[in-house]
Design goal:
heterodimer; A: 640 residues; MetI-like fold; eight-stranded mixed β-sheet; elongated; disordered C terminus; B: 317 residues; 78% helix
Chain lengths: 640, 317
């Protein structure tokens, strides 16, 4: 929500601008003593002079007076009509929302019908019947616009009345008129005021258009549309004549639109945001030529550091290093917000625009055995790598497929992006892939749309698509979180089988917060907390004997392990108290100390490093772990 | 699909019926005698004989129900009766002038789409960037210029000052194709720029929304070329909302052509309408408005079908 002060600040300029343009015409008697209708043919089309600042028109009338008094007429017609339309429309809308039934039909259908008529045509129809004039105009414009107000009020009122606090006050017995006046009306004031300004601008346009046709305000009363109409014939000799009323009209409408846009942005700030899609800033220079010596290693993340793009904000990923090997499944585990998804998106070159890599390297061994650093590649090469060398499965199968393209089209384009292949070959390949991921009747179902499939089926499609170019590295970002438990097991089983089947030694990076699933599938586990890897090592060792208090807490809060360990005692499932700190509010020393059951005073002073075990198999970032060098804590404690 | 189309067509016919009824009942609900009202000029009323003649001519002497049925029946046969000014057949005048109006609208729409969809896409993809800020500012200014002001200014600059194009008028394409096209440029530009501001706004918003969807990330993750991601997974999805809005805005567009044709002396439906309004020729006004409403409903029917082709979810409902 925007604060009150911000609200005022952003609205000052448009409000002043609009107020000035509305007030000036009505201050006409103070500005000029001339009569807008007094004809002086002798001075027709006279150039501006000291007495008549804007010159005289084709009948010798003072143009300044005409433009000011004309503004009075235009603005009066527009605002009176808009106000009438707003009052009638709001009333109908509220009645419709409150009583529903037939009045609902009237309010919502009526506006559909009125919308069918070009407004100016409907106005012309009425003018034919009643003849031109300001009163006719006001009547027509209010009839034209009240259904729109009714519809907006109606739908907003329905939305507001279903809000929790309104339901609550109704349940408490507050009379309905008080609910309407006290809660509904203030809540719909925003959209209504936006519509009010929009309508006022449209009404001015129509009024001036009709007057321009000679069917609106009746001469000799001045109006901007009429002034343009009159000056049109003399635009050669006297360009000022059309410029002045045009400028007045455009400025007024612009002021209203400007006010309206600001108002809408202020009331609904989410529409105003927007970061660029393809502006991913890269680290400045490549430090060293990428090298992965071990032929078994597919990718190496080394000291990755990610920051938000705003200057001076802390790192969202402080230090992540991982080695991903062929034929191995590495699980990245942690609470939401720990940075596990961002680490994997960095590998894909898919970081959101607001986040950039400021340090570390992301090396990948491509299928061609060439080693590249993903942080320094041009867009073209990255496109070649994505889907081909690295593929990714996302958490939300329901939204990860484009709803308006057939499965076949989406799979075929993934294949032909990297392999020169005819469409029919690609289709055959896609069908084979769907069969491989366990889809029955793949020949038929490949032609369905995503909306015709269940979540589990869509995730199978995503997996098939990811495997279509036989990548060396597959990233699965919580692939089962959005699915039913039974489907979860099937998908995990499928991933296991596929991993073993894939010929070229697939490396799987499996991201999850579910340690039960991780125990099933992972060879190695890396536990992340608050942008750091806190413990890393062989899955069996880590899960059986965690050395970091956070890993231990994660394992203990798993329902299944809890049952095994504590079923006899019948006590409660432990939870980790507190929440992980925001990047901007990480404590000094160890980031987990605030939630740690075994924290010591020293933990506030020392930020632990990732201490490797004696055999080099595992590492842990904790002062109290067996791996921590003996001297570290004593030394620091003495110093403190 | 066929069921969908027939359902939409039935709705369109129902809509036409409602509009016909409303237009018809306007004559019934006006206070006093419509014939007397139509013949009145600035306070003075017409002779009793003239009023009686008009009543017979317009069928106002028959019972309301008979009038209504006759009106619907004749309208369905595209017989709009005769003008009360010159007794000419309204249908044949409309048949002559309608294609000219459609020409401006089609040319203007093509211009608007060609200009605004690429510009709106570019602005939406880089929202907050330099191009977006510039284009949105220009758009805000253009939105504030009513069509007839834009037309007047165009004539002033392009015809009077620069002398590049004729200030108005009409020559049949068959008579002189080059001159015909020259005369079409300014009216089409005026109508088109107005529509372009709306299409730009909508395209920008729609692209901005679509590009944040998960399937766009999937498309990028597949390794598709950026151009293809934008075309197939952002723009193609955005097209549905865009054409729906364009369809609704066409009502306003059809209205603004009235003024545009008037300014450029283009003898389309609008000239007919304006002179009919001036002469209080109600049957003609009624016929023109019914025609325009029918075109509007027809266009929206086509758009409904188009968007259902674009988005399977609409069909599957």
């Amino acid at each position: 929500m925007m604060s009150v002060r911000n609200f005022h600040k952003r609205m000052i300029l448009p409000s002043l601008f609009l107020a000035a343009l509305i007030i000036i015409p009505f201050a006409a008697p103070l500005i000029t003593a001339d009569d807008p209708v007094k004809i002086a043919v002798r001075y027709r089309l006279a150039a501006p002079d000291l007495e008549h600042w804007l010159g005289r028109d084709e009948f010798g009338r003072d143009r300044l007076a005409r433009v000011l008094y004309g503004g009075q007429v235009s603005l009066t017609v527009a605002f009176v009509a808009t106000t009438i339309a707003c009052i009638i429309g709001t009333f109908f809308g509220l009645v419709g929302a409150y009583f529903r039934g037939p009045s609902e039909f009237v309010t919502s259908r009526l506006s559909d019908i009125v919308l069918c008529f070009p407004p100016i045509l409907l106005a012309l129809l009425v003018v034919t019947l009643f003849g031109p004039g300001s009163v006719t105009l006001v009547a027509v414009l209010s009839v034209l616009y009240f259904p729109t107000f009714a519809r907006i009020t109606f739908s907003e009122a329905l939305r507001v009345t279903s809000l929790d606090f309104v339901e609550a006050s109704r349940a408490l017995g507050t009379p309905s008129y008080r609910i309407v006046l006290g809660t509904v009306l203030p809540n719909i004031a925003g959209p209504l005021s936006v519509q009010y300004s929009l309508t006022a601008a449209a009404a001015i346009t129509i009024e001036s258009g009709l007057s321009f046709l000679g069917l609106g305000v009746v001469p000799p009363a001045p109006s901007w549309g009429q002034m343009i109409r009159g000056a049109r014939q003399f635009m050669n000799q006297d360009p000022l004549g059309i410029m002045i009323p045009c400028a007045a009209l455009v400025l007024t409408i612009f002021a209203i639109n400007f006010f309206c846009d600001r108002l809408r942005d202020t009331l609904d700030p989410k529409g105003a945001s927007g970061s660029s899609m393809d502006e991913v800033s890269k680290p400045k220079a490549q430090a060293d030529a990428p090298t992965i010596k071990d032929p078994d290693v597919v990718a190496v993340i080394n000291k990755l550091r990610l920051e938000t793009a705003h200057f001076g904000t802390p790192a969202v990923i402080e230090d992540v290093s991982l080695i991903l090997r062929a034929n191995q499944c590495t699980a990245l585990v942690g609470e939401s917000g720990s940075g596990k998804s961002l680490s994997s998106l960095a590998l894909m070159g898919l970081l959101p625009g607001a986040i950039r890599q400021v340090g570390g390297t992301l090396q990948l061994r491509r299928k061609s055995d060439e080693v590249v650093d993903l942080g320094f590649l041009d867009a073209r090469t990255l496109e070649d790598i994505r889907g081909n060398d690295i593929a990714m499965i996302f958490q939300e199968p329901m939204t990860s497929l484009n709803p308006i393209h057939k499965i076949s089209d989406q799979m075929i384009e993934a294949i032909t992006a990297h392999r020169p292949m005819s469409r029919s070959d690609a289709r055959a390949h896609a069908i084979a892939l769907l069969k491989r991921v366990g889809m029955n009747d793949a020949e038929r179902r490949i032609d369905s749309y995503p909306d015709q499939m269940s979540g589990g089926m869509r995730q199978r499609v995503m997996i098939g698509m990811a495997l279509s170019c036989e990548p060396r590295l597959l990233i699965a970002d919580e692939p089962t979180t959005a699915l039913d438990v039974t489907i979860q097991a099937e998908i995990i089983e499928l991933l296991q089988t596929l991993r073993q089947d894939q010929g070229n030694g697939l490396s799987l990076l499996f991201i999850s917060h579910n340690l039960g699933v991780v125990a099933d599938i992972a060879d190695r586990v890396a536990v992340m907390y608050s942008g750091l890897i806190v413990e890393e090592g062989p899955a069996a060792q880590i899960l059986r004997d965690p050395h970091h208090p956070y890993t231990r807490a994660l394992i203990e809060s798993m329902p299944s392990s809890h049952e095994e360990l504590n079923s006899a005692r019948g006590d409660r499932l432990p939870a980790i108290s507190g929440t992980p700190p925001l990047p901007s509010a990480r404590p000094s020393g160890c980031t987990f100390r605030d939630r740690c059951p075994i924290a010591l005073p020293a933990c506030a002073d020392i930020r632990p490093a990732l201490y490797p075990s004696a055999d080099g198999e595992r590492a842990v970032r904790c002062l109290r772990a067996p791996e921590a060098p003996a001297g570290v804590m004593n030394h620091q404690t003495e110093a403190a | 699909m066929l069921a969908f189309i027939s359902r939409r067509m039935a709705a369109a016919v129902a809509m036409l019926l409602v509009i016909g009824t409303i237009i018809f009942s306007l004559l019934i609900i006006v206070p006093g005698d419509p014939a007397e009202l139509l013949l009145s000029t600035g306070g003075g009323s017409a002779s009793a004989e003239a009023i009686a003649n008009l009543r017979v001519n317009m069928g106002l002497d028959k019972p309301v129900l008979t009038q209504y049925v006759t009106f619907l029946y004749n309208t369905a046969r595209l017989d709009f009766g005769t003008s009360i000014v010159d007794n000419g057949s309204i249908s044949s005048v409309i048949a002559l002038r309608l294609p000219r109006t459609l020409e401006i609208i089609i040319a203007g729409t093509i211009f608007a789409l060609l200009l605004a969809i690429p510009a709106g896409t570019a602005a939406g993809l880089r929202a907050g960037g330099k191009f977006d800020i510039t284009a949105s500012a220009i758009n805000a200014l253009l939105t504030s210029i009513p069509g007839f002001v834009l037309g007047t200014l165009f004539i002033f600059f392009f015809a009077q000052v620069l002398g590049w194009l004729p200030a108005g008028g009409y020559v049949a394409f068959a008579t002189n194709p080059m001159q015909h096209l020259q005369m079409l440029v300014l009216p089409a530009l005026t109508v088109g720029l107005h529509l372009a501001t709306i299409v730009f706004r909508m395209t920008r918003a729609s692209v901005l929304e679509m590009r944040g969807h998960d399937w766009v990330r999937t498309a990028v993750a597949k390794g598709l070329r950026r151009k293809r991601v934008v075309r197939r997974h952002i723009l193609y999805n955005a097209l549905g909302p865009i054409i729906t809005v364009v369809g609704l805005q066409l009502g306003i567009l059809l209205g603004s052509t009235v003024l545009v044709e008037f300014i450029y002396n283009w003898p389309g439906l609008s000239g007919l309408l304006v002179s009919a309004v001036e002469q209080r020729d109600y049957p003609t006004v009624r016929a023109v408005i019914l025609t325009v409403a029918a075109i509007f409903i027809g266009i929206n029917l086509v758009i409904d079908i188009l968007s259902s082709l674009l988005d399977p979810r609409i069909r599957l409902q």
